[in-house]
């Protein structure tokens, strides 16, 4: 009102606040009052009318003219508009020309200068009058602190306009004891005062020992470390009281020592200013040296020095005498500042930009006094550097700046301005750019992303509301100027609580009518009087605005940035996955994750269990609550905090959580099925035990969790389908990572998951899911949701099968939550959540309002994006819902079923107004009785949409007559799908029908899309896009236009009105640019265009052609589908062409921390690096050699993108081609992906190498990238989600068809599907060949094998890809003609496959039978002696390249025994020979002859490196004992059966270890029992088999049961039914390595088969005819039995114990040999040990042994390589001495190269990759526990049995064995088991 000045208002406000009085209606003390919920300003004015102090409409208010004096001697009458302006939260500027032009004004003082001036004057001598001091919180705390330190005295003059400072001449005192200097969040004050406090000298009067400065929670996170380090190094004593590097600080009063001060100034210039300001008061003159790299914000340092000069101290900056360059060294003399009598504080130059910009935009004149060319502030250059080039006349004197704007609408765009020196002013420049003619590019402002909000993003988003287009750049933005007349009026600008956003948009508001700024108070930070000054000094009227709705929280913009960044708290039962989800969420949000347990451990230096043990539960709970308090205060932003499950046990902690969830941030309850929790907790033991049942704890805590949380996240490990949980990974296609990212992105508001097509002028749709149980439809959701923007869950139609009454109309919240969670696992589409009541056309009871509300509340908690709320619900409840909804949106709906509501009547208007008040989206549904009703509806819609700030409006008519309204409706039209059980409402159409209708009525004209380039005839793009158009029912076409250059045909095509867009490929990607109007930032960065998009020009002048590039999106999509952006630590790009550019751009966008680039031609790589000056790229000279980090560790990449043609690459050493070494895949610690951009061959060398060497690496082919970039292209052209599944199926099928027909000349893909199972069953070898595990050379050479191999590769691809998004085979065809053609195809393909299989079979058998020539023994080579021929040894032999070694195998068995199938031999299912493979069959196929000796090793001498062995066969020759030397010995002798010394076991039990054991088992006892005259009890004894050991071997022996079931009945009918099997196990359960589910399953299967399982039972003795057992209750029982089968465990062999005895100190583990990470035997040289004979952390399994064997083969290959290089080095070193001249130089080069290669040979440690556990449990059932993603898939049953069989079949080492085993299985099935025995 221009009555009390700004200073007075500021002081008064602070005073009221200090007395805890509210100063706005938003103050929580008012806003939280229940009656305030519906209080509006108008309502308040109404209430004031009746106050007797007022006279009706005339409101009387006491006004102050200054503090202490009233404006009038009575209360002044104040206009309603003025009161409303003050009370409203939002403000609007009345657009027009400033009436006070030419304006002359002073803007508020600069904050930086104010703070410096306060310190200088306080430390100075004499009195100084500070004029124009900024009155803000910052200056206030600075003054308070200086007073506290007794450093100065202050007085006010001129009604607070002038501050008089009486300087203290540097004399400072320690504040009184217990008095801390509190600085709030004032950063500048904290930094300046740290050094000021260091100046304090101890005085005897001081009671306190130290000065303590502290701040609020945020301040306690802000860094101060570099300053404290510099001061302590200089002799000050400063201690951190809490967190290292942050406030609070305790500073000893030692004074500043002076001399050399070294300070790191790369973080903040305020540290430098702090030292400079105080330096004159040090004991010695100070030399300040700035270290640590680039000094930041030099202008602020210069400002400090200039101000010090004004106060009498001159600082000298040193200069390099030789170069004349300024150095970062400053000399500050000792002295005392002399206060000038008056010091005028310069206006804030950033603030000055707003009035100057108003002059510029309105064509008026403005002069800002006290900002001129001599200004110390960078922003003072705004007028000259920005406004002048934009067409303003700028006059600048030393102290004043005047701007005269051009006539309105004639501002010119700035082609480019670097605003690095005036970053805060970029917002002002941006709004001017928005109305200038042309494009304004602003750079150098990257830091603005981390200010009060992300200012660049904020400007982009808010300008978009006006219709102004922008492009975000890495360090700035481009603004496409738009004529003022084209700008949208009535926009509400969200200010993000940022003063600069509000003031910048006020400038735009001067020319765009009805612009509203939603948070007007945010300007208080730097210009508290902004709105008044606009009015009074500039002459633009401002008004208060009340935002729509009873609470201002109804907005489409989501929560403010501060709220968005509030930390998330996770609660839930222990074992519910809080930490797991927390880590995923933190990685998705790029936040930090804190596990409260870990935090606890760090803080209390003990773990929780120990703490509870030592101090008891109540002490723990108290500590836990305190810690919670601390975490919530200390980590208020940017953290995901995962709390312990029991935190809710105390009321205090619950209160804290409730308070937090209500006011500050999300508290998310992680919900997991209690059964899963129980199972999980069964194995986890790091927390104290509950002491009560988990279920009881669960029941107690669940209500507390619900009460404390604001959100719920369902973390079901398994998917939910058919009303129960199932383990089906194909259903749960979307990874948990994606869902976590969606959920947390949405609830924090950082990436709200809203439908982009809700934007103005576009059509949006949702699909109504009308299922009683959605889960059966989950596999089809993708198909169902093609084209739509969201999915509607009709909660009222859900029927909970567990609800007792099947058709109860109210589903339970738990059921609904599970349904939503299940849906989330398959789609990221936003969900519209609807509980439609009967009266509104739904199925929910009208009288169950509470239940409806609680279900709607659930929607909010689950982060559902859109919630349909009927406006018939209580408005207070809806209002409350609005206040909690965060980024979710409310659809306020009204349905009229009667048909009475008329669209041109008053009723509908009333409903609209209510819905407008309550929702973000308005939905009104009527009923059409005639087509006219649709026209009336349209008129109503048009009228409502033309209102300012109109909200999205969904208006349709039900019934067939109303279908037209559904076609014309633009917002969220509900659609159906033919596959749905029913339509949600009469007249509902499908998405495709609506598109067709829109096309027919001319709303979607058909368009033509093209591919430009050559050669393009093989392109898959037409398939891709035409499939998409068809799937969406769009009338467009995609065609090829092949030209050699950009000719007239192309020019005519892109100019045609029906041109929809084009893809551009080689050779036009660069040349096309000239034909386009504009380029996207991506296209600019890559210097190439691959997509043309016609867009509307920003100035509305028509269509322009935008060049974009989606190549990078394809790469980004393929990477991010596998690795979260935050997890890319380093990435390698191979190649330096256009695609490499795209790869670099994509990786930079994914925040890859390091990018390596490799190209054979170095020069091109260097050029590419130059093209990305802002991205740090390391050039790599050698593939596989990685730069090292600071700690010396190499950083191998976890992402590789190769852009070179696959035909030019190889896995083997070949000089002509680019060689990929295995070291490329050195990274093994986590997820990794390699992409080969080549389309052909199907498996390129790079991908093949990955599959062969590194299991953690995923691979992606070029076709996948093509698809991904195609999806992006489609979405750019159509602004609609691409039907990815449909496209990828068709494109992959087409790709395979083409690959096959190119190779074989016919469509081979036809035979794919039918032959796959055939091949899998009968030819696992081929499968393995296809997986790259077979003899690749063989496959390469032979066309038939190649053919089959490629078929299987494709089969595998289809299999894998059906799990991922990118591909699945087309669905089977069902109708008649298709069926016939299917039969034809089947016939042909069966023929081809039978012939093919026969050919392959013949070839392989012949190859195996006729091994070729081998290299002879070579004395020059090293000798490897392998002991054993079991799993470990055979796997080694199989993989070992024998070229470089002589190999000797010594084993008492000259064969390999396939142990997993041994139990099948024991029961006669398989014949013994079927599972044996003679070792020579393998060794005869090696390159160099391998000596196989059938003998038992008796001694290994590790000192002399010899092995002594003995022939122990029955027939012995003259020599049967000998010793041979070795260079390397591979010790793989396995283990013996462990009997634990139990009496009788060794002698009387049958083992299950060797073939002889199995052979001796069969039939034992049965024939004896069948012996005539046997008495019944003896028969029972003989037929009782006791199996000891509940591991897989023992369990598999239970296959005996099959024998008894299947065969005994037939052949021994008299004994059938009398045989009994007991399985004895000492542990609490059988199969401890399997999951609980599978254990239960096995036990129940055994139960059904009548196999007794005796757990916790121990064998004490085995006697003839019985076994003595100790039962669980410790009682001893003698159990009669005919046989004891012992499968009890392993122990080391004697030879192993002897070997260990050589190294008693290191070899002391009784389980076996101790080995290191590289499998070297500890203590010995040259001995490697693998398999069961070792004691490692791995289980003694075939899997481990065979992986170890294969690993050793790779180790030997590396050792050989190194040995050969070393030999070469020696020979080169010898020849160099005799060489001369060029030859010498060449040899020197070779020596260097050999050395470098040697250094590259690295042997990586062994890494075990668990492939899962399998066991056969009898009755044609098996169980499997297989690793999947980050967890396990557990399955059991008949299907698993088939899997078990096929897995074992494919694992058998030779085709011969496979044929034999498959044959035995078939024979057994047909004829039963073989019962004969010797
Ligand atoms: C019945 C049964 C079923 C099994 N099922 C599975 C399963 O399903 N999955 C699984 O992963 N694991 C299974 N295993 C375990 C698996 O067989 C072993 O872990 C694996 O065999 C260990 O391999 P290895 O090379 O260390 O020893 P072995 O395979 O036992 O080989 C040791 C070799 O050393 C030879 N040898 C012994 N003494 C000497 C000597 N003094 N001098 C020279 N050579 C010697 C032996 O003749 C033999 O050739 C099963 C084991 C059994 C017994």
Automatic annotation (TrEMBL):
Residues 107-534 form the Enolpyruvate transferase domain. One of its GO terms (cellular component) is mitochondrion. Its cofactor is Zn(2+). Its EC number is 2.5.1.19. The keyword Iron-sulfur does not apply. Residues 1011-1092 form the Shikimate dehydrogenase substrate binding N-terminal domain. The keyword NADP applies. Residues 1423-1749 form the FAD/NAD(P)-binding domain. It is found in: Cytoplasm. It comes from Dendrothele bispora (strain CBS 962.96). This is 3-phosphoshikimate 1-carboxyvinyltransferase. Keywords: Amino-acid biosynthesis, Aromatic amino acid biosynthesis, ATP-binding, Kinase, Metal-binding, NADP, Nucleotide-binding, Oxidoreductase, Transferase, Zinc.
């Amino acid at each position: 009102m221009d009555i009390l000045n700004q200073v007075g208002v500021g002081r008064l406000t602070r005073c009221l606040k200090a007395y805890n009085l509210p100063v706005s209606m938003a103050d929580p003390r008012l806003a939280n009052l229940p009656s305030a919920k519906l209080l509006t300003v108008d309502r308040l004015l109404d209430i004031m009318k009746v106050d007797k102090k007022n006279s009706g409409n005339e409101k009387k208010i006491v006004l102050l003219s200054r503090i202490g004096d009233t404006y009038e001697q009575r209360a002044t009458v104040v206009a309603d508009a003025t009161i409303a302006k003050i009370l409203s939260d939002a403000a609007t500027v009345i657009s027009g020309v400033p009436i006070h032009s030419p304006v002359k004004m002073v803007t508020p003082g600069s904050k930086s200068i104010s703070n410096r001036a306060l310190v200088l004057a306080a430390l100075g001598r004499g009195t100084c009058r500070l004029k124009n001091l900024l009155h803000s919180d910052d200056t206030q705390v600075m003054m308070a602190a200086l007073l506290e330190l007794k450093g100065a005295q202050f007085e006010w003059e001129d009604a607070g306009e002038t501050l008089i400072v009486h300087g203290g001449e540097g004399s400072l005192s320690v504040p009184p004891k217990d008095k801390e200097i509190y600085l709030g969040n004032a950063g500048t004050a904290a930094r300046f005062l740290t050094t000021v406090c260091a100046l304090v000298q101890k005085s005897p009067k001081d009671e306190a020992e130290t000065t303590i400065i502290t701040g609020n929670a945020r301040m306690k996170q802000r860094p101060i470390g570099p300053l404290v380090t510099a001061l302590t190094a200089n002799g000050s004593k400063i201690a951190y009281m809490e967190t290292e590097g942050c406030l609070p600080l305790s500073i000893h009063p030692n004074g500043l020592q002076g001399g050399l001060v070294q300070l790191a100034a790369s973080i903040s210039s305020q540290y430098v200013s702090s030292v400079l300001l105080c330096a004159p008061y040090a004991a010695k003159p100070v030399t300040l040296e700035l270290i640590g790299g680039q000094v930041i914000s030099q202008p602020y340092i210069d400002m400090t020095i200039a101000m010090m000069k004004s106060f009498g101290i001159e600082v000298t900056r040193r200069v390099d005498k030789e170069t004349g360059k300024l150095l970062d060294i400053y000399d500050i003399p000792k002295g005392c500042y002399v206060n000038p009598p008056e010091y005028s504080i310069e206006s804030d130059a950033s603030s000055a930009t707003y009035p100057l910009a108003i002059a510029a935009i309105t064509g008026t004149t403005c002069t800002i006094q006290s900002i001129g060319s001599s200004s110390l502030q960078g922003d003072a250059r705004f007028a000259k550097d920005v406004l002048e080039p934009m067409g303003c006349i700028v006059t600048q004197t030393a102290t004043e700046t005047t701007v005269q704007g051009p006539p309105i609408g004639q501002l010119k765009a700035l082609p480019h301005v670097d605003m690095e020196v005036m970053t805060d002013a970029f917002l002002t420049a941006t709004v001017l750019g928005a109305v200038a003619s042309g494009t304004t590019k602003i750079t150098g402002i990257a830091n603005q992303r981390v200010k009060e909000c992300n200012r660049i993003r904020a400007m982009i988003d808010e300008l978009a509301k006006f219709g102004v287009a922008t492009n975000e750049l890495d360090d700035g933005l481009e603004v496409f100027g738009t004529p003022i007349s084209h700008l949208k009026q009535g926009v509400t600008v969200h200010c993000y609580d940022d003063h600069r956003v509000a003031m910048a948009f006020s400038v735009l508001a001067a020319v765009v009518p009805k612009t509203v700024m939603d948070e007007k108070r945010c300007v208080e930070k730097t210009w508290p009087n902004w709105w008044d000054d606009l009015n009074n000094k500039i002459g633009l009227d401002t008004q208060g605005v009340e935002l729509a709705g009873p609470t201002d929280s109804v907005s489409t913009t989501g929560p403010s940035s501060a709220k968005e960044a509030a930390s998330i708290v996770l609660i839930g039962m222990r074992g519910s996955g809080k930490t797991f989800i927390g880590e995923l969420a933190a990685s998705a949000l790029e936040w930090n994750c804190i596990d409260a347990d870990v935090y606890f451990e760090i803080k209390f230096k003990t773990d929780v269990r120990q703490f509870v043990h030592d101090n008891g539960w109540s002490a723990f709970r108290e500590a836990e609550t305190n810690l919670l308090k601390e975490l919530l205060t200390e980590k208020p932003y940017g953290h995901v905090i995962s709390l312990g499950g029991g935190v809710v046990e105390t009321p205090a902690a619950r209160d804290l959580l409730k308070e937090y969830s209500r006011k500050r941030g999300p508290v998310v309850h992680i919900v997991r099925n209690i059964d899963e929790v129980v199972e999980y907790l069964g194995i986890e033991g790091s927390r104290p035990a509950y002491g009560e049942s988990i279920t009881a704890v669960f029941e107690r805590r669940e209500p507390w969790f619900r009460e404390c949380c604001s959100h719920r996240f369902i973390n079901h490990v398994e998917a939910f389908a058919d009303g129960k949980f199932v383990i089906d990974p194909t259903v749960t296609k979307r990874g948990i990572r994606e869902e976590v990212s969606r959920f947390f992105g949405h609830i924090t508001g950082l990436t709200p998951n809203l439908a982009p097509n809700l934007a103005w002028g576009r059509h949006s749709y949702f699909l109504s899911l009308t299922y009683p149980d959605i889960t059966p439809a989950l596999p089809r959701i993708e198909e169902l949701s093609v084209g739509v923007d969201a999915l509607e869950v009709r909660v009222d139609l859900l029927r909970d099968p567990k609800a007792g009454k099947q058709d109860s109309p109210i589903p339970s919240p738990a059921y609904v939550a599970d349904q939503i969670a299940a849906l989330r696992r398959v789609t990221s589409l936003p969900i519209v959540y609807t509980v439609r009541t009967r009266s509104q056309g739904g199925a929910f009871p009208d009288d169950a309002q509470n239940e409806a509300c609680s279900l709607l509340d659930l929607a909010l908690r689950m982060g559902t994006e859109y919630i349909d709320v009927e406006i018939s619900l209580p408005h207070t409840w809806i209002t409350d819902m609005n206040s909690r909804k965060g980024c979710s949106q409310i659809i306020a709906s009204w349905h009229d079923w009667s048909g009475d509501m008329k669209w041109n009547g008053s009723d509908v208007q009333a409903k609209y107004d209510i819905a407008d008040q309550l929702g973000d989206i308005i939905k009104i549904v009527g009923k059409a009785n005639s087509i006219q009703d649709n026209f009336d509806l349209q008129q109503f819609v048009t009228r409502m949409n033309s209102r300012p700030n109109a909200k999205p409006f969904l208006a349709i008519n039900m019934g067939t007559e109303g279908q037209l309204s559904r076609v014309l409706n633009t917002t969220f039209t509900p659609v159906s799908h033919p596959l749905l059980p029913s339509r949600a409402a009469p007249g509902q159409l499908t998405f495709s029908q609506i598109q067709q209708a829109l096309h027919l009525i001319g709303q979607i004209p058909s368009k033509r899309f093209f591919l430009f380039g050559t050669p393009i005839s093989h392109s898959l793009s037409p398939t891709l896009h035409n499939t998409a158009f068809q799937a969406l029912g769009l009338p467009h076409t995609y065609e090829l236009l092949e030209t050699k250059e950009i000719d007239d045909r192309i020019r005519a095509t892109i100019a045609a009105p029906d041109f929809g867009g084009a893809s551009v490929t080689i050779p036009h990607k660069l040349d096309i640019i000239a034909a386009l109007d504009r380029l996207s930032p991506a296209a600019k960065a890559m210097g190439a265009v691959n997509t043309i998009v016609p867009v509307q020009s920003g100035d509305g002048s028509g269509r322009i052609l935008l060049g974009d590039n989606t190549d990078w999106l394809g790469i980004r999509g393929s990477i991010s589908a596998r690795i979260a952006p935050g997890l890319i630590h380093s990435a390698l790009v191979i190649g330096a062409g256009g695609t490499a550019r795209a790869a670099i751009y994509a990786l930079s966008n994914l925040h890859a921390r390091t990018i390596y680039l490799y190209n054979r031609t170095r020069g091109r790589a260097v050029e590419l690096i130059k093209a990305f000056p802002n991205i740090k790229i390391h050039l790599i000279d050698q593939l596989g050699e990685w730069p090292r980090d600071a700690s010396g560790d190499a950083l191998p990449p976890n992402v590789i993108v190769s852009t070179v043609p696959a035909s030019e690459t190889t896995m083997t050493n070949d000089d002509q081609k680019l060689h990929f070494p295995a070291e490329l895949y050195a990274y093994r610690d986590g997820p990794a992906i390699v992409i080969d951009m080549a389309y052909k061959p199907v498996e390129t060398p790079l991908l093949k190498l990955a599959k062969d060497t590194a299991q953690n690496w995923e691979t992606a082919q070029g076709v996948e990238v093509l698809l991904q970039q195609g999806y992006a292209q489609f979405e750019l052209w159509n602004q609609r989600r691409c039907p990815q599944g449909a496209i990828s199926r068709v494109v992959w099928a087409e790709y395979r068809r083409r690959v096959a027909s190119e190779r074989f000349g016919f469509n081979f893909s036809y035979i794919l599907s039918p032959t796959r199972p055939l091949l899998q069953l009968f030819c696992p070898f081929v499968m393995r060949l296809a997986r790259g595990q077979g003899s690749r050379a063989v496959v390469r050479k032979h066309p038939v094998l190649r053919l089959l191999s490629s078929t299987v590769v494709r089969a595998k691809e289809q299999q894998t890809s059906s799990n991922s998004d990118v591909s699945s085979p087309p669905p089977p065809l069902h109708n008649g003609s298709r069926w016939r053609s299917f039969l034809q195809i089947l016939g042909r393909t069966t023929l081809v496959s039978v012939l093919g299989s026969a050919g392959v079979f013949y070839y392989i058998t012949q190859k195996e039978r006729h091994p070729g020539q081998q290299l002879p023994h070579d004395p020059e080579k090293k000798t490897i002696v392998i002991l054993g021929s079991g799993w470990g040894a055979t796997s080694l032999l199989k993989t070992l390249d024998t070229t470089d070694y002589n190999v000797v195998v010594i084993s008492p068995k000259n064969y390999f025994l396939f142990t997993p199938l041994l139990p099948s031999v024991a029961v006669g299912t398989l014949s013994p020979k079927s599972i044996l493979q003679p070792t020579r069959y393998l060794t005869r196929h090696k390159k160099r002859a391998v000596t196989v000796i059938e003998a038992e090793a008796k001694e290994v001498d590790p000192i002399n490196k010899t092995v002594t062995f003995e022939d122990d066969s029955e027939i012995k020759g003259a020599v049967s004992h000998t010793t041979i030397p070795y260079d390397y010995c591979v010790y793989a002798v396995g283990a013996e059966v462990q009997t634990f010394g139990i009496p009788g076991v060794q002698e009387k039990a049958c083992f299950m270890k060797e073939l002889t054991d199995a052979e001796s088992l069969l039939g034992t006892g049965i024939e004896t029992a069948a012996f005539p005259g046997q008495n019944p009890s003896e028969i029972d004894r003989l037929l009782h088999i006791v199996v000891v050991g509940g591991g897989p071997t023992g369990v598999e022996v239970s296959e005996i049961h099959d024998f008894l079931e299947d065969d005994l009945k037939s052949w021994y009918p008299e004994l059938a039914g009398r045989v009994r099997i007991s399985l004895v196990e000492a542990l609490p359960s059988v199969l401890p390595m399997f999951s609980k589910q599978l254990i239960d399953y096995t036990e129940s299967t055994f139960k059904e088969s009548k196999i007794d399982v005796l757990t916790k039972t121990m064998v004490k003795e085995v006697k003839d005819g019985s076994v003595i057992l100790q039962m669980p209750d410790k009682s001893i029982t003698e159990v009669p039995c005919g046989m004891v089968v012992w499968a009890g465990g392993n122990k080391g062999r004697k030879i192993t114990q002897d070997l260990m005895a050589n190294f008693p100190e290191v070899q002391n583990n009784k389980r076996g040999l101790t080995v290191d990470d590289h499998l070297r035997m500890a203590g010995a040289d040259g001995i490697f040990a693998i398999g069961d004979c070792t004691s490692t952390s791995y289980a003694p399994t075939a899997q481990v042994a065979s992986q170890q064997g294969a690993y050793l083969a790779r180790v030997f290959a590396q050792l050989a390589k190194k040995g050969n290089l070393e030999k070469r080095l020696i020979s080169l070193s010898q020849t160099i001495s005799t060489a001369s001249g060029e030859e010498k130089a060449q040899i020197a080069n070779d020596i260097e190269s050999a050395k470098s290669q040697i250094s590259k040979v690295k042997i990586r440690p062994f890494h075990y990759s668990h492939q899962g556990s399998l066991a056969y449990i009898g009755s044609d059932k098996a169980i499997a526990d297989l690793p999947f993603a980050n967890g396990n898939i557990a399955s059991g049953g008949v299907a698993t049995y088939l899997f078990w069989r096929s897995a074992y079949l494919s694992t058998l080492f030779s085709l011969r064995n496979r044929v034999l085993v498959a044959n035995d299985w078939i024979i057994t099935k047909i004829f039963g088991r073989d019962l004969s025995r010797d």
